[in-house]
Amino acid sequence: MTSDSYKKILLLRVGILLISLTALAFAVSAGNIYAIVPTLLLSAWACYYLHAFCIKRFREIDDFFEAVKYRDFSRWYTENRGPEDMRQLHRGFNEVNRTVREMNSEKETQYLYLQKILEMVDVGIMAYNLNTGDVLWANESLRKNLDIPSVKNIRFIANRKPKLFRELLQADHSRETSVTVDVDNQKNKMLVSNAVFHVGKEAFKLLVLQNIEDTLNQNESEAWKKLLSVMTHEIMNSIAPISSLADTLKSNVQMAMEEPDQYPLEIEDLHTGIESIKKRSEGLMKFAKTYRSLNKVTSLNLSRIAVGELFRNINQLMNPSLQTKNIEVEYKVEPQDLEVHIDTYLIEQVLINLILNAVDACEGKKSPGIVISADRHLDGNTVIKVSDNGKGIPEEVIDNVFVPFFSTKKKGSGIGLSLCKQIMLLHKGRIQIRSVEGEGTVTSLIF
Questions:
Q1: According to CATH, what is the number of the domain 122-211?
Q2: Residue 395 binned pLDDT confidence (cut-offs 50, 70, 90)
Q3: SS3 letters across the chain
């Protein structure tokens, strides 16, 4: 519309109108009737010519805006007929339509991609209008998990399954929550979260639902398999030699009873055999107790204690055994009046475990050293660290040190660090290990 052609044609029509009006004015002033009539007709034609020129283009623009209003971008305007300025205007309209169609096509493609992805994921997703209840989106996984058909409004769920509606849609799950849902007379464990978002004046709720029943069952099954495997292996390792030795002793005793002269009973051998059976049995009992210790800690007896006092208790308990190993131990507390709110007995058990691990790691070192320190970080957390300059933990196994029954020691049960982690979780804290093989390990208790 701003092309030079349009400007020239518009100026020409305005010029013709001005000339005709000027001539009409002269004719009227001269009183020449023969001049007035043709100049009047010329002026009328010039006005009509200018009006028609402008109206035609305004109609084209109004027509285009009407199509935009109703989102009709399918129309194609002629570009090869008519005045040059009209062609230019039509090219602009067509370019706008083409751009919008491309944008819509890209948007549709992205929507189809998103639709396919959401249908493929094993997570139920629903979005609906909070005011009207109209469902914007609900994928197949959600319908399957809740055993509902495709719905257009959540009122359907409220009418058909009111309990499900209250527990999932009405309840607030802004924080991820585990909910037991009764679906088709089966109780399934679901992980539910929701978020509210606004588009313009409308409020929408997005519900995300994941069925974790199968995962829990699978994990439980795997855990039982590992547990039974470890227990079977350890028990068989203890029972096999006990059974074999008991059978041998029984055979010796029986032969001595039947033919005492030919097979005299060696009391010392009998004593040694019984002692071996006793030790093996004690080892089996100890192994059973380690299993029980994993489930033993379920509650805390919290009290506030100065970290310095906690360290003094640990030092009195551990110092005699550490001195015999010639290990230098240093305790550091900053600030000196630092306190923690803990179950003293359990945290002492954790520290003893970590110190014994550090002692084992320092075995064979020329100048073994252990540092037990405590300080308060800027984020307000109290951190107790047990550091050693021992052999460190290989990078390939450090991620498994908290796995029950995993141990890098030949005589380790793999229970210690698992128990430490459980105790820290009960304190709503965490335990972290940083280690460099050949340089040492730092274990942090973060409260």
A1: 3.30.450.20
A2: confident
A3: CCCHHHHHHHHHHHHHHHHHHHHHHHHHHHCCHHHHHHHHHHHHHHHHHHHHHHHHHHHHHHHHHHHHHCCCCCCCCCCCCCCHHHHHHHHHHHHHHHHHHHHHHHHHHHHHHHHHHHHHCCCEEEEEECCCCEEEEECHHHHHHHCCCCCCECHHHHHHCHHHHHHHHHCCCCCCEEEEEEECCEEEEEEEEEEEEEECCEEEEEEEEEECHHHHHHHHHHHHHHHHHHHHHHHHHHHHHHHHHHHHHHHHHHHHHHCCCCCCCCHHHHHHHHHHHHHHHHHHHHHHHHHHHHHHCCCCCCEEEEHHHHHHHHHHHHHHHHHHCCCEEEEEEECCCCEEEECHHHHHHHHHHHHHHHHHHCCCCCCCEEEEEEEECCCCCEEEEEEECCCCCCCCCHHHCCCCCCCCCCCCCCCHHHHHHHHHHHCCCEEEEEEECCCEEEEEEEC
